[in-house]
Amino acid sequence: MSQIPALLRFRQGDSVADIDTDATPGFSGSKSDAAPVQASRNERLAELQELLYANWKAADDQRSVLLVLQGMDAAGKGGIVKHVVGAVNPMGVRYTAFGKPTEEELGHHYLWRIRNALPPAGHIGVFDRSHYEDVLIVRVHNLVPPEVWEKRYDEINAFERELVDSGTTLVKVAMFISLDEQKEQLLERLEDPTKYWKYHPGDIDERLKWPAYQQAYQAMLDRTSTEYAPWHVLPCDRRWYSRLAVTELLIEALEKLDLSWPPADFDIKAEKRRLSDS
Ligand code: AMP
Ligand code: MG
What we know:
Elements: H1 4-8, H2 31-59, E1 64-71, H3 77-83, E2 93-97, H4 103-106, H5 112-116, E3 124-128, H6 137-140, H7 146-150, H8 152-165, E4 168-176, H9 179-191, H10 202-208, H11 210-224, E5 231-235, H12 239-255, H13 268-277
Helix pairs in contact: 2-12
The structure holds adenosine monophosphate and magnesium ion.
């Protein structure tokens, strides 16, 4: 369990083509073994999130955590948000989904909408897709010329350096499912009326571009996995595993902040006396 983050950490030389999307690194049990573990780790995550929030509220701690979820359609980003992020108090979460940029967004630098969505102090930010779309779909679809997206890798590294320096811990997760599993998931969306809303005909066009996406994901990992903001490569064919793993990544990030409950900044005895007299 505790070795999950290290096992998922992207290492230079790792190849996207070789990812075993069906693997469960660091967890040898089955789906039913994972359920009680997930429940108890959710509690730990909720406690850590409350500590982060409490330290900001009571002690003006400026730190925050930003979870960046990047992955193809049906990789399970929505499930991570629902089941992992959903385990913590929404008061302390700032969630943003990044879709096709609006007219207004297109009038600005691509990082403009990203900056506007950064988590405030004491919060956990969640990016459901992110600035990495600007070197993924944008690159695959030639939405800007190569000399433009080419410069973005360094620019993103500088941007993330700035975030880390200002007290934000980045937890970057690249989610991968096999084409077969993606097909299953998309079929489910077509067969279940409660899932039609998740389906877009364009998902199939993106799926057919997988070889180009694979190259773009490889470049993203090679060029933006830094020591201060490393990527994690998450196998997502087994959704129960990917959820447990992201829970572990967030727990690790929060534990590194070494948080404790902020002490009272008032005289407890005196307040008790005042209370009983009131
Ligand atoms: P979904 O996450 O399924 O709601 O889909 C959002 C869509 O918006 C995906 O196809 C993304 O690739 C696309 N998208 C997100 N960011 C950008 C961007 N910067 N430029 C173009 N398309 C984007
Ligand atoms: Mg989608």
